[in-house]
Amino acid sequence: MGNASAHETPPEPRKRDAAATAAAILEAARVVFGERGYDAAGTREIAERAQVNVALINRYFGSKEGLFAQAVPPTLDISPLLDGDMASFGERAASLFVGKVMQADYDPLVALVRSATSQDAAPLLRKALSTQVIAPLAERLDGANATERANLIVSHLAGFHLMANLLGTAEATQADLPALRAELAATLQALAETSPSVD
Amino acid sequence: MGNASAHETPPEPRKRDAAATAAAILEAARVVFGERGYDAAGTREIAERAQVNVALINRYFGSKEGLFAQAVPPTLDISPLLDGDMASFGERAASLFVGKVMQADYDPLVALVRSATSQDAAPLLRKALSTQVIAPLAERLDGANATERANLIVSHLAGFHLMANLLGTAEATQADLPALRAELAATLQALAETSPSVD
DNA sequence: ACGCTATGTCAACAAGTGATTACAAAAAAA
DNA sequence: TTTTTTTGTAATCACTTGTTGACATAGCGT
Hints:
Two copies of one chain form a homodimer. By secondary structure, chain A is an all-alpha fold. Chain A is built from eleven helices and no strands. The first copy, chain A, has helices at residues 18-36, 43-49, 55-61, 64-71, 79-82, 89-97, 108-115, 122-139, 146-167, 169-172, 177-192. In chain A, helix 1 crosses helix 2, helix 1 (18-36) packs across helix 4 and helix 7 packs across helix 9. At the A-B interface, helix 7, helix 8, helix 9, helix 10 and helix 11 of A face helix 7, helix 8, helix 9, helix 10 and helix 11 of B. Chain A binds a DNA duplex through helix 3.
């Protein structure tokens, strides 16, 4: 590729709009953090995706950690799962998780699971998770031990995602996907309904 | 600390025993991989813990990846959970996971969860997980969808571990630990027994 | 038109990574 | 003992990481 000297398009500099730039960085950060997890996500890759100079990340967000804090935790939200009759909660959640082909380029739960093992990111995820996910879910649960069951529901979903999508165990064990979905739905529904083991 | 020149103990070189050295590296690797996860674990830290020169890791195991492959996957084993009556499987598993203070300095499941998000380590964990964990577990399950239920049991345990120990959601949400344990036991037991949702 | 400040660019740094090489020396073989 | 092989050491490579400071300039207020 020897088009060295001649009429190169001199890469025209960015329009100067701090708000738009920060927003672009945030969006790119969500995608990359979601794809790679906190540790494996590089600031340079984020910057490139946002078509922004790397230094701007630190200018606008102080650090990679600051960027993550503003990008990912605010997106943790399960209200789509909570809208609707809780009698079909298990079915809804299972359908959402089993065999789904990732449509959007960013899924908060993926980002959560992929970054949960990072020592830098985990503390940032803790608070958001309990206040934005577990607490609202527990609110919708009747019966005893609502908080505990909410914890288990989220754990189960996170664990399922970890095993199915990251480790691919479902495919590796040649599991019957419809059957897996049914079992998952039943388990989640049991946790969502009044506890079976406590009076 | 000015003891520069005088009678420093010249660090006497290692006894030369290839087998013992490799074993020391393996043991140290398990601990460090378990504590940090694959990506965050450094070869230098492993070598230091094993009191071994870094280059020996590559000499004996070819690469960091080779070391991981020989160190962690072979230790994945749930036979302790499978020994005994399956009627109390849920109780046994729950007791093992809730509120336990890590006693041993290496727990295979911790290493699994902490490394599952690594793109390098995940492929190495897949096969071991399905053949050494899920398959034996499914073998012990009666009723329909044994493989699918085994997948869900392992997913649930991994997810619980992820949320409870890495993210600390149980403490963050001020969950009642005994109640949490009871709910977890009930859920696992339900999965271990004949499927409730399929005839 | 001016200057000033916010915004963006560029190059570099310090620290870390896994891996490799050349060499020293102990142990084994001759 | 002499030679050969195995084991361990030390230095360094090539590379990536997050971060920073010096510089350029667009665009606004005056």
